[in-house]
Amino acid sequence: MTSTRFLHTSDWQLGMTRHYLEGEAQSRFTGDRVETIRRIGELARARGCAFVVVAGDVFEHANLSRRDVGRALDAMGAVGLPVYLLPGNHDPLGPGSIYAQDAFRDLAPDNVVLLDGTGPWPVAEGVELVAAPWRSKRPDADPVAPALEGLDADGTLRVVVGHGMLDELDPDRNSLATVRRAPLDAALARGAVHYVALGDRHIRWPEDGRGAIHYSGAHESTGFREPGRGHVLEVVLDGGTVEVTPHEVGRWEHLRLQRQLDGPDDVDALRAELAALTPKERIILQTVFTGTLNLSDSAALEALLEQQAEVFASLNAWERHTDLAVVPDEHEFEDLDVGGYAADALEELRRTAGSDAEDAAVAGDALRLLYRLVEGPAR
Ligand SMILES: [Mn+2]
User: For residue 198, how far is its CA from the centre of ligand 1 (angstroms)?
Assistant: First the structure.
């Protein structure tokens, strides 16, 4: 039997926007996610790969601008090897498909091949892809199993290219579009197929890299539930053996920072931790702070976050899980130069902030603001 080496990637979702990215950060995110395709191409050529398969969700949706489609296709052209695109749930075939639009038809370079037919696609002598493209956003049956029909163990090396959630990973037990593992295992066991390149899951699976059924994960991180940077998989099939090697290609990172802050040491540790993160312009940071700080520490934290928010791609609190109380120390206002009307307001805010009242948190915010205004810029 023959052998082959290729890259397996998926879920590029080109044209994706993120609500927490503003202005220039969103532009860079969009541009970098296309640029990463060029690096995937460099890697594929350097590793001596024969082709690249994108296992679904190449594009985010069907309403991309001609410019976005054109730039994406330009990057795919630069790969310099055949790039096989599988339509997934974000970019299915059918009416209004992005693949039926003039932008794609006019601008697709010769090396880009749309896997728009279900079943075998010869890609090299003795090597076939077995494509399972999505034809609608909501299939009413396993989107992969039909592609396996009629495949014999005839010595052809076959790579199934499919999209969807495997039954053992699908949180929606009633989903009609769940990819059943049993038919894939059966096809592998009888030697009709040799590798299954899946997409839909944005993080690599299985983590231990064993077996012949794999999700590559997205090439660039798309959310806070995806730790680390994106990967592609280098796959070598040689006779009956499967060798899978992950390569980090992503440059962006979603980072969720959960920290308990109970005093100045904790704020200083956080300051050092933020300073050490790099490159900040490609790190999307979400904070989940809990604990209790006094006014000066709280003001220092606020100033720190304000400074850093400008440097990180984005820095926001996960409000739902943030539970940081601000409780003024007894002495905190003693040395401040506050008198008259402001002193009365201060006393009232202190009472409210320290109570169980519904507006205790608002009073805490007001206290902190007052403290910063009177004290001047915090450290
Ligand atoms: Mn998907």
Answer: 10
State in Å: Cα 158 to ligand 1 middle: 23
Q: How far is the CA of 327 from the centre of ligand 1 (A)?
A: 46
Residues 111 and 125 occupy one common structural domain: yes
Residues 47, 48, 53, 59: is their CA dihedral positive or negative? positive
Distance 16 CA to ligand 1 centre (A): 13
Domain identity same for 117 and 195: yes
The CA 214 to ligand 1 mean position distance, Å, reads 15
Ligand 1 centroid to residue 165 C-alpha, Å: 8
Q: State the distance from the centre of ligand 1 to the C-alpha of 164, rounded, in angstroms.
A: 6
CA of 333 to the centre of ligand 1 (A): 55
Task: Give 200 Cα–ligand 1 centroid separation in angstroms.
Answer: 4
pTM of the predicted protein model: 0.90
CA of 12 to the centre of ligand 1 (A): 10
Q: Is 247 helix (H, G, I), strand (E, B) or coil?
A: strand
Centroid of ligand 1 to alpha carbon of 96 (angstroms): 18
- How many CB atoms neighbour CB 146 within 10 A? 13
From 228, 248, 268, give the residue that closes a domain: 248
Q: Residue 198 is part of a domain; what is its CATH number?
A: 3.60.21.10
What are the 10-residue block averages of pLDDT along the chain, 379 residues in total?
Answer: 93 95 93 97 98 98 96 98 98 96 97 98 97 94 95 96 94 86 96 97 94 98 94 94 97 96 96 96 96 91 94 93 83 74 83 83 82 63
As given in the structure block, the two tokens for residue 62 are 């069907």
Q: Quote the CA–CA distance of 328 and 361 in Å, as a whole number.
A: 12
Report which DSSP code applies to 167: T
- 69, 28 in Cβ contact below 8 A? no
Task: Supply the DSSP string of 108-129, one letter for each residue.
Answer: --TTEEE--SSEEEEEETTEEE
Residues 219 and 279 in one domain: no
Of 238, 234, 292, 288, nearest in space to 263 by CA: 292
Helix (H) or strand (E) holding 107: helix 102-107
Q: Domain of residue 363: give its range.
A: 253-375
